[in-house]
Amino acid sequence: MANKHGDFVWYELLTPDADAAQRFYGEVVGWQIARGDLSGLDYRVLSAQAAESDASHQIGGIMPLTPAMIDGGARAIWLGYIEVDDVDQAVTRLQNAGGRVLMTAADLPGVGRIALVADPQGALFYLMHSLDAQDSLAFAHDLPRPGHCAWNELTTPDAKASLAFYNAQFGWVKDGQMDQGPNGTYEFLRHGYGLGALNPSPDAAPAQWTYYFRVADFDTAVERIGAGGGQIGMGPVTIPDGDRILHAVDPQGARFALIG
What we know:
This protein is of the alpha+beta class. Helix content is 18%, strand content 43%. InterPro entries: Anthracycline_SecMetBiosynth (IPR052164), Glyas_Bleomycin-R_OHBP_Dase (IPR029068), Glyas_Fos-R_dOase_dom (IPR004360), VOC_core (IPR037523).
């Protein structure tokens, strides 16, 4: 079954040191990482095997930031790719709704068409129309799959505006909420399945997506974050379904989350 408009289909780390990032995430998450063929670019493809009976799934990539990108203000960051029916039409709708375009729509031979954009509150993501008709398992909404993304969380200073924006762009809907006391209301998102959530920002900082990658051995992953030079910012904590989560920053400064 092919991915539909509004599905997360890929996750990409932009980083100033791809070699160091490859070592770090290979140890922490357990990804198999190999050089990919992307128009001559240095691109590392992340693959995960969810179970012994499962084939290996490509879930994302690592791309080094160039000196020109860094001089222009780019920083280490995880970005998600959202499938759309037509990238150019999606760009126009996004701009009309107050979003911004950071990289104009371009074709990637053999891959598809993409554009790097930001929502009205500043959260960055890619729009993508894939050439491959296969259903991406980068976001594992069907069952727990180690090495795959398990949750997409948007921290935003304006949850009401963010919900309206993403509903209009991709058809996402609110599916319940959880009271966090002084930390505000955590609002769940659905797209035919549990997609993620909106989390209120404690200050007026720009919105940002955080992606939760599932690990097979949570305690070992915690140890390897510290051993590899990363820092844990929140957690570990146990969530209502019994899983544990944490937020962390890798050695190059990219924010990510783990669940297990």
